[in-house]
Write a structure and sequence with these properties.
The protein is an alpha/beta fold. Helices cover 39% and strands 19% of the residues. The longest helix is centred in the middle third of the chain and has 36 residues. InterPro entries: IF-2B-related, IF-M1Pi, IF_2B-like_C, Initiation_fac_2B_a/b/d, M1Pi_N, NagB/RpiA_transferase-like.
Length: 364
């Protein structure tokens, strides 16, 4: 997708095949900076610190992290230790484990002296597959947007609400929830996005707003608690969010606050869709509320906030009284009964075991 006048991905191998480059998302929206990762420890730090974030991008970064580990030492015990290091970084997104399992399954079959080249190639294949899946999700979601457009007066804007950032910054390219928006925008359909700020890390206010601006998609940043108000007044036609892990029965774990949006959408009769590439589906789980691990992050993300001063300096200030405790669950689970449908690379499915089995019979 676009950054200024250039087309970018969020992660790409260095020309010397000795490193990987990423966009440092902790610097956005005020500064665009890239980082060079040269070790598996660098990749683990990038995931843990959220220099890269979003379930699909975490998976791709983990794959490249294993390639970096193989380049240093391709023995099986070293790769296993590297995978354990990467797996421990963030617990909720299933793409992380999926990518590591895929890489290890391929590399373990090979003699040691063939593993390095194969690791780089397989990581690149995982990244390319992510781009293709997200583009396909965009096409299927575009059909939904076209259907909404047909029900409105000619030329009227389709208003879409999203939560957190499930755009191209959360993936290798295109995004999941925002891929349909970009496809619609490129097709000349008038679309407008309401982007929840997404406290406490403000991915909507910073990342979603930034990338929509780069693509010149009309958008408005709203506080997290404004979505229900807008839905009540008929100002939202469609909700599309991403997912970090979806059970085989259609329960969805996404950024904290997603469940509340789904409840509002159900009450107001607004369709609520989840863009779910197949690597984000955990076929081993049936009950999302009981079984999906929810990451608990540090309280400083709640008690403080970082922004740009009038002088152009990035500073962090405290929001809460020094004696107040803070809790910071990073995700919540939206039950399948509140999800209108799952937009996958193979089509749109009911949020149910039967619906997913229809699209992915080989997994069900």
């Amino acid at each position: 997708m676009r950054v200024g006048d250039q087309q970018r991905r969020t992660i790409w191998p260095a020309e010397d095949d000795r490193a990987v480059h990423i966009i440092d998302q902790t610097r956005l929206p005020h500064r665009f900076e890239t980082l060079r990762l040269t070790t598996v420890a660098d990749a683990a730090h990038a995931i843990r610190s959220m220099q890269v974030r979003g379930a699909p991008l975490i998976g791709a970064t983990a794959a490249y992290g294993l390639a970096l580990a193989a380049a240093s030492d391709p023995r099986e015990e070293t790769l296993a230790a590297a995978a354990a290091l990467l797996l421990a970084t963030r617990p909720t997104a299933i793409n992380l484990r999926w990518a590591l399992d895929d890489m290890l399954a391929v590399l373990k079959q090979l003699p040691t002296d063939h593993r390095v080249e194969t690791a780089w190639r397989r990581a690149a294949e995982i990244a390319d597959a992510d781009v293709a899946m997200n583009s396909s999700i965009g096409e299927h979601g575009l059909a939904l947007i076209r259907a909404v457009q047909r029900g409105k007066p000619v030329g009227e804007t389709v208003n879409i609400l999203t939560h957190c950032n499930a755009g191209w910054l959360a993936t290798v390219d295109w995004g999941t929830a925002l891929a349909p928006v970009y496809k619609a925008h490129h097709a000349g359909i008038p679309v407008h996005v309401f982007a929840d700020e997404t406290r406490p890390r403000n991915q909507g206010a910073s990342l979603t707003a930034w990338e929509l601006g780069q693509e010149q998609v009309p958008h408005t940043v709203i506080v997290d608690n404004a979505g229900g108000h807008l839905m009540q007044r008929g100002r939202v036609d469609l909700c599309i969010v991403g997912t970090d892990r979806t059970t085989r029965t259609g329960d969805v774990a996404n950024k904290i606050g997603t469940y509340l949006k789904a409840l509002c959408a159900r009450d107001c009769g607004v369709p609520f869709f989840v863009a779910a590439p197949s690597p984000s589906i955990d076929w081993s789980l049936a009950d999302g509320i009981k079984e999906i691990p929810i990451e608990e992050r540090g309280d400083a993300e709640v008690t403080s906030i970082t922004g740009l001063t009038a002088e152009g300096q990035q500073e962090t200030v405290r929001l809460t009284p020094s004696g107040s405790a803070a809790a910071n669950p990073a995700f919540d689970v939206t039950p399948a009964r509140l999800v209108t449908g799952l937009i996958t690379e193979r089509g749109i499915s009911a949020a149910s075991a039967r619906g997913l089995a229809r699209l992915f019979p080989e997994r069900a």
